[in-house]
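FIELD: query
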Amino acid sequence: MKRLKMSIAAILLLAVTYVNAQAGHNHSTMKMDNKKMDHSKMTIKSDAKAEAILSDYFNLKDALVNDDAKEAAQAGSKLVVSLKAFDRKTYKGMQQMELIEIIVDATEHAEHIVKSPIDHQREHFKTLSKDVADLLAITGTANPLYEQFCPMYDKGSAWLSTSKEVKNPYYGSKMLKCGSVKKQIN
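FIELD: result
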């Protein structure tokens, strides 16, 4: 089974590479590590559709900070739309394949947020935050962002913010200031 998956992945990679070569795209490829990406070295110009994803992500984060499950569900719904509208075809090779995985996973978590109570929304937000950070490692961003971290939620959980001020989406009003800025992105 593992050999079949690797064969399929290799065929997809060759097909994507061929299509991109035929289209004449001239983008550089980034080597990425699936385990942990270094977001501090992003120098890529931002992508408008990635910025739309970020905007919807931040609206979702703010709803969770405010303990508003209904608003979080609405923001999750908008995020699903922006994730599905993302155009990964402007990227080449491994970036494109990585983006496919990220978008599929992020969309699944955003869809769960739409139909879940707030505790479950927060569980999905944790993985969604990693997906969005991984997306940014490829697309870049126009504005400085901050990766923040709460050591108490689920053995440690990160999220992105537009501000250095910590407002914890995992605990909301219960522990609003729990966490710290780990690094600046961009």
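FIELD: remark
The chain has one domain: 45-185.
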